[in-house]
């Protein structure tokens, strides 16, 4: 299986429409890949909080339209990263006043939207994304016939291992994590990606952004990790397309060879004080 992670740069001098068209061109250049992945909130920048509302789209908005066509034109499975999604308004609220979500879109090679994942864990500690966007509540997997089952997560989700256990229980073999991870915590990015791969005996495809989001330098360093925690490929800090070939069958082989997941003990009581 061949995967291409597009570590696109967010340039504050470039409009959302211009970046969207550039992303389309980058996707189309990946003909021959099985799966193409874009990062989190690449339309606005993950830290450009003031842009979330003005640039929010309906699920089937301009990014959906552009990415669906790019997927079908190129014949690839496309994880189009995430967008600020404008949800449906509550009863009585005016159009355009619906809640915001950080929503990932996945398209089939025919351009059909096969999955949308609303980010569950929102970053910000009572500010930023954590207060501006609603939380998703669904675990989402996508079956690529004849290849692998994708488990979807986004950026800050990477810090919460129980989410990934749930994805594995739902059949995930390849964990896809678009992100807008800051440079100052890059060591955590690499460490956590490897940890999620090892503990779940799954491939991890972690796609970050380059550039600067609202004054926050991005880590870049997208990476692909195998079920043993080995980094198969890693990007630098700048804009780059990271392409790697891997064997999805290694997941089943690893889980059979070293069957740690069978020894999980669930439902433990809280420890007693002594």
Automatic annotation (TrEMBL):
Keywords noted in UniProt: Hydrolase
List each copy of the CN hydrolase domain by range.
1-248
Q: Is Nucleotide-binding among this UniProt entry's keywords?
A: no
For molecular function, the Gene Ontology terms on record are: hydrolase activity
* Highest taxon in the source lineage: Bacteria
Residue ranges the record marks as coiled coil: none
The UniProt similarity line reads: Belongs to the carbon-nitrogen hydrolase superfamily. NIT1/NIT2 family.
Q: What is this protein called?
A: Carbon-nitrogen family hydrolase
